[in-house]
Amino acid sequence: MAKVILEHITKVFGKDFVAAKDINLSISDREFVLEVNLKK
Questions:
Q1: Which of 3, 7, 27, 34 is the most exposed, having the fewest neighbouring CB atoms within 10 Å of its CB?
Q2: What is the pLDDT of residues 16-38, one digit of tens each?
Q3: Do 5 and 29 meet the contact criterion of CB atoms below 8 Å apart?
């Protein structure tokens, strides 16, 4: 069985805009994940 594990992920734009801070994600086999980015 496959598994994807992401731990302690942070995304910063420029010098000071934190879009995501300390994200943990675990995706097991046969799971479906959808990330939606709504931009205004």
A1: 34
A2: 999 899 999 999 999 999 888 88
A3: no
